[in-house]
Amino acid sequence: MSQRSDKVEKDVNASTANKLLVICIDRDNDVGEKAGIVTPVIGRDACIEAAQRLALEDPEDADSNSIFSAIKTYEDLISKGYQVEVVTVAGVKDRGVQADEKILVETKKVLEKFSANGAVIVSDGEDDESVIPVIQNVLPVVSVQRVVMKVSRSVEYSYAVFGKYLKMVAYDSRYSKFFLGVPGMLLLIGGVASVFNLTTEIFAILVSILGGAFLIRAFDVDRMWSSWSKPTPMGFIRMFTMVTGVLLILSSVPAGISAVDATLIEAETELVAKITDQVIIGQFVAGALPILWIGMGAIFAGTLLSNWIGGIPRQISDILRIIVLASLYPTILQFTNIMIYDESSFTLIPPLLGGLAATLVSATILFKKYRRNRDQEMVSD
C-alpha cells in the first residue's frame, strides 16, 4: 500500500509545474506608449519600477494595478516554495495580430533566460486574456488572474459587451440592413418630405414602411424568401408557386366583392351595417373561396413538389396539408350557405364529419406507409 501511495505522489509531482512564470499582459502597450518602457520587463524590481512610472504618467490606467498584482502573485508563489519569475510583456497600440505576435516573441525571449514549465497569466480585462491561446503555444497556462478595479468591473464588462454588439450592428449585414437600413430609409424619406412640405402624407408612408419592416423581421419573411428563392430547381418551383399563390389569394378579394349582390351594396345603410351584414359576408366568402383555396393549394403543392424533388423527408406533412385544405372546403362552403340563405347551423355537421374522417384516414394510411418504408430501410441497412 505504501509503495502505491509513493508512486501516486511521484506522478503528481511530475505532472505539476514547479517553475512558474508570472506574466502580466499589456496588449495595447500602455507601459511603452505612456511610460516609455521597453518590454519585456523581467524581474520583481524592474516590474515595480515600470508600474510606478506608468502610474505617475496615468494614475487612472489599470495596467499599473495589473503589474502590482503580478508582483504580489509572484511573492505569494515564492512563499509557497515555487521557483518563480515575474515579467511584463506588451503588444502594440493597435492590438490585433501584430500585438499577439510581439507578445509571443517576448515570451519566447523570457523563456530563454528562465526555463519555466508553467505560466500564471495576470490581466486587467477580456482583451488581454484573448492572448492566452498564443502563450499556450509555447508554455502551459496553469492559472489566470483577473485584475479589475472594483469600481470599474461592471463598467468594463458592460462596455465590452456593448462594443461587441455595436460592431455587430454596424458591420454584420444580417443586422445592419434592419437596424441601420430601415432607420436610414425613414430619415431619407423624412428629409425629402420636409423639403417639399409633404410631412403629413409622408408620415403615413413612414409608419407603413416601419410596420412592414417589423412584420418582415418578426415572422422571418426575409429568411424564408431567401431560402425559397435559391437558384435550384426546388427554389424555382417554390418561388413560382409562391408568387402564383399570392396573386390568386389577392385576386380572391375582388372576386368576393363582385359576388356580392349590388343592391345590397347600394342600399342606403351605414358602412358598419354593410360590413356586418351576414348575407354580404356570406356572398363575399362564397365568391372569394374558390380562388382563395386554389392559391393556398398552389403554395402547398409547390412545397410538396420541391421537397419531393429535393429528397427532403417531409412529404407526409405536405400531403396532409393539402388534404386538410380540401377537406375544409365543403365546410366553409356550407358556412356561406348558412350566412346567405339562413340555413340551420346543424347543416355544418355532415361536411365537418366528412372532412375529419378524410383527414384521419389519410393520416393513418400515410403514417403506416412511412413506418413500413422506414422499417424496410432499417432492415436493408
How would you explain this protein's 3D organization?
The chain is an alpha/beta fold. It is built from 18 helices and 5 strands. 21% of the residues are buried.
Q: Identify the strand order in the major beta sheet.
A: 2-3-1-4-5
- N-C termini distance: 52 Å
Strand count: 5
- Strand content is 5-15%
**Oligomer state of the chains in this structure:** single chain
Q: How can the largest sheet be summarized?
A: 5 strands, mixed
Envelope shape: elongated
- Which whole number gives the mean pLDDT? 78
CA radius of gyration is: 37 Å
Helix-strand topology string: HEHEHHEHEHHEHHHHHHHHHHH
Given helix and strand content, the structural type is: alpha/beta
Helix content: over 70%
* Low-confidence regions: 1-15
Number of distinct helices: 18
Characteristic terms for this protein:
about 375 residues, alpha/beta, five-stranded mixed beta sheet, 5 strands, about 70% helix, elongated
